[in-house]
Design goal:
This protein has about 250 residues and is α+β, with helices and mostly antiparallel strands. It folds into 2 domains: about 60 residues, SH3 type barrels (Roll); about 160 residues, Lysozyme, CATH 1.10.530. The chain has 9 helices and 6 strands, in the order αββββββαααααααα. The protein has a 3-stranded antiparallel sheet, with no helix packed on it.
Amino acid sequence: MLMRRWAMLGALALLTSSLHARENAVLRSGFAISHDHRQQLGAVTLLFFTTSDTEYVDVETEKIVSFEREEPLLDTQHAASPDSSPTPTFTGPSSPDLNQIVEEAARRNQLDSDFIHAVIHAESRGKSNAVSRKGAQGLMQLMPKTAAKLGVTNSFDANENVNAGTRYLRELLARYNYDPLRALAAYNAGTGRVQQYHGIPPYRETRAYISSIVRDFNRRKTEQERQKKSSKQAAQTSTANLPPTQDGN
């Protein structure tokens, strides 16, 4: 599965930044991790996402090339690229077959279906007829030009929209060496902005967008694990309560 890097995203759920000065830890891979403060413990450096010390990720110190001051976040209402997707308005119900459509699209493109669900939730809240202020349409908020390039004839058709949007995400992941954060940034703010800033653009909207998808994805995985544990415990309890056999065993 192409979403193998999502384990790291769990630690990046608090991507949105506070207003005071922050830093980016630039890694040898070109990946940059935004953080509030840091602490080096020999071969490992802890990068803290908030002013507290409860949310952090540990990175091998030797893999960090440099620390760069993070530029103040810009207001996307004025600075975002033309193909960014602002908060949509909703004009229709969600598709009853959405789960099946997502599963098939995810399988076809070798992506995690929970990832696709999280993107759809962030883009349209699952409304197939959603239209943004800038004209993005459907479940995955495809701009008309993007939809045309992807061969979409009706962006309000759930099957067409999700399949095209998932394929586009797959293309972005391949373009950015399967870095999901940059792929999501490009999906929201455009590939030009990711190239301009050599990573995630310093836009409030884009950072909040990525953060919401990470949180939703992690929430889905956490709930799945909870349900698995609950089912396992219920099965064990049921087995323990079975009456003994006639031979006493």
